[in-house]
Amino acid sequence: MSDYTKVTLDESEIPTQWYNIIPDLPAPPPPPLHPATREPIGPEDLAPLFPMDLILQEVSQESYIDIPGEVLDVYKLWRPTPLYRAHRLEKVLDTPARIFYKYEGVSPAGSHKPNTSIPQAYYNAKAGVKKLTTETGAGQWGSALAFACAQFGLDLEVWQVRSSYDQKPDRQRMMRIWGAEVHPSPSENTEAGRQILALDPNTPGSLGIAISEGVMRAAPDPDAKYALGSVLNHVLLHQTVIGEEALKQMEKVGETPDLLIGCTGGGSNFAGLSFPFLREKLAGKINPTIRCVEPASCPSLTKGEYRYDFGDTIGMTPLVKMHTLGHDFIPDPIHAGGLRYHGMAPLVSHIYELGMLEAVAIHQNECFSAAVKFARSEGIVPAPEPSHALAAAVREAVRCRETGESKTILTALCGHGHFDLSSYEAYLNGDLVDYDYPDAKVADAMSRVPVVD
Amino acid sequence: MSDYTKVTLDESEIPTQWYNIIPDLPAPPPPPLHPATREPIGPEDLAPLFPMDLILQEVSQESYIDIPGEVLDVYKLWRPTPLYRAHRLEKVLDTPARIFYKYEGVSPAGSHKPNTSIPQAYYNAKAGVKKLTTETGAGQWGSALAFACAQFGLDLEVWQVRSSYDQKPDRQRMMRIWGAEVHPSPSENTEAGRQILALDPNTPGSLGIAISEGVMRAAPDPDAKYALGSVLNHVLLHQTVIGEEALKQMEKVGETPDLLIGCTGGGSNFAGLSFPFLREKLAGKINPTIRCVEPASCPSLTKGEYRYDFGDTIGMTPLVKMHTLGHDFIPDPIHAGGLRYHGMAPLVSHIYELGMLEAVAIHQNECFSAAVKFARSEGIVPAPEPSHALAAAVREAVRCRETGESKTILTALCGHGHFDLSSYEAYLNGDLVDYDYPDAKVADAMSRVPVVD
User: Fold this and answer.
1) How many CB atoms are closer than 10 A to CB B380?
2) Which terminus of chain B is more solvent-facing, meaning fewer CB atoms within 10 Å of its CB: N or C?
3) Torsion angle of alpha carbons B343, B346, B348, B350, nearest 10°?
4) Do B150 and A376 touch (CB under 8 A)?
């Protein structure tokens, strides 16, 4: 056993700036387009939904943006997060690989999401906003935003996809403990919800519908704004505290990663870990391979096309250039709910197109198998989302056992699985389905993506 | 906002010895008695159930016992745990009091229990034991022991009280993820279980029955031993890592507690925090008031008698001198399942009799009110058990607001409430009952406690 198991930092070492990768890229990302005019959108188009500080971060050309003291004070409740050397997992895998994981599950909401919910709530409160609205699927983002709104005295209304609302009551309870109002979506509270309920009173709902409800509630209300938990540039920006800390921690113990691995749904956790390492790679200081891991049933990078599409299912948002499976593609019901998004963050998509990232898609049984190995050796029960990154790390560690290489692997364990234990039960009982790669469904959904030249 | 929110230690600062308070006490605690002979029991009486290393710790007169390297290596997965200054709670309470809390919920099992499950599993594995058995109520202890057995390659069979088994499936799932076999109790797997099921197939079970099943399974099997999660001296001993770390952390920021507050069920979390501070108090270095907080519906210190009684409901264990409500006292169904025990650890009881501790009993609605205040300010959602300590801390902080005193209060937040969110829902809906102080029930149960002179 080596000298250390986890590498900790003092709270005085929390990064004081977020890192914006855009100015360092060899080419700028394509702009979002207005859905009607197909012209690049301006800050004023976003003003009904977001406060100006966040809009300016969304389009910023500055490499670094100072983290406000009020945000740092709340980050201190759980940051810096620990970086672990997975000694016990390595032993179980009998591998010469050196596996490190950055653990974000120590936040009060149990995932990396508060890294952005806290600044989003802060900037809204600073702008005089009284209420936020949002959508949530399984509830990770909704609970992170509820925690943040409690810190800054904001009201919060959450529309949670009805199937999750009914099946996983714990995340909903957590949001209420923090003071949020939670509606199943579709709801009777919005015109969009009422219309859909009139057509089908028993609909299970979808993230697209929930987004519509949140947006419709916020847009006409001068005291309310909307908040999004992934995909957008400012969200990815806030998450870079993960990678900045990990860089310091690896340096502290004299390690350099040969391979970075992150799971990708909307892309914010992956970007948070990898962008600061990409900066160092672009500067020629390190040279890690950087690998995205997505679910086989929702493979936006490995099976999607890179083109303009809507961010939501109904087609209300600006058109953004990204890897997409088609805005009305509905992924099979895998347990990693946080990875069931039809597109990939435009910024991650752009960097992938630049050839700076690899991507791989993995079926869920392999992911849960890795997660159980991890739980029995390292203790922590991972959320289903980062189990995708763990599965890829296990693959690489097994490869190292065969080749004898002692590669240094760094991955992000972006949350615990305390509210996902029923999916482990299904895995242990042999009840989990590995859905086919959705080629035909993707082709069908792609046929409805607008053509933009 | 002050300079620090949490006080962290490097993993090199994890205590390397457990502290045994017994030699420092002005009088030794009365010995356990054999239930038949009423003579003090010897190590050989305990040998069928526990490995010799743990039996020797149970009766040790040494002030310090070295923590084995193999145990320290596993402690490093989550220790040292953070000590927080509750700036945000203080602000909400508008109090001049300075509130600190030591947070044990960062362990993989989410509570302080792994501090003892890890050494218990280690010493059993070292003694060649292949399997452990135990009982669990809500599942905190069972899951902590499952995590520990996965670390040391031991099999584990858990008997979980049927009402909890049926109503709270998540803890059971967690035990299975870590590889344990879990039975509802009473079960068909033991003679005790079968007898009780024959009388009443629909019985909800009890901790006493579950203990009987675990003991009956282990005692005759040369490869199996039994493990207990609280009450015994060696369990309290292992928990002193909490207080040793807290002492260092308070010293690091130049703070001295005026008041220590801990919740008490079996007594292990309370002992873990307070015994190292008691040592310093006995040595004349500090002079904090030390306060136990128990549920109003299970008030062993404030309403129980100090006399010999059985540790289990059925009366199979040695007789131990403790504060007891009577071994067949069944507490009302409050949500802090971990505090629903008829007795108090003999060592905590003895120290209370010596006049070194205070005790107070609090109803559950006041506790959940404090817990929700805490969650909305400090972020962490507390387990119902430590919400008792938080309620007492809030009382004291409010008193300080009235008197203007800036007392330094230190409490232990011994676990998170991720698997107890339905009890918060009941509280927020106004459905929680504050049961009457159980004077008549206590008098009835006490009438069946054996008379020992």
Assistant:
1) 24
2) C
3) 120
4) yes
The predicted complex's ipTM stands at 0.95
B399 at A interface, C-beta within 8 A: no
* B189 backbone dihedrals φ, ψ, rounded to 5°: -85, -15
Q: Tens digits of per-residue pLDDT, A93-106? A: 999 999 999 999 99
pLDDT averaged over chain A? 94
Spatial CB neighbours of B237, under 8 Å, sequence gap ≥ 6: B18, B19, B20, B57, B60, B65
Q: What is the mean pLDDT of residues A355-360?
A: 98
Q: Which domains does chain B have, with CATH numbers?
A: 6-14+79-110+236-446 (3.40.50.1100), 31-66+116-233 (3.40.50.1100)
User: Would you call B179 an interface residue with chain A, using a CB distance cutoff of 8 Å?
Assistant: yes
| Residue numbers of A between 139 and 178 with CB closer than 8 Å to B | 147, 150-151, 169-170, 173-174, 176-178
State which amino acid sits at residue A342: H
d(CA B238, CA A171): 34
Summarize pLDDT for A147-196 with one digit per residue, the tens. 999 999 999 999 998 888 888 889 999 999 999 999 999 999 998 899 88
SS3 B302: helix
Distances, alpha carbon A437 to alpha carbons A303, A371, B46, in Å: 9, 22, 59
Percent of chain A with pLDDT strictly greater than 70: 99
Q: Is the pTM of this model over 0.90?
A: yes
Closest CA to A421 of B169, B114, B424: B169
Contact present, B32 and B320 (Cβ < 8 Å): yes
Quote the pLDDT of residue A207. 78
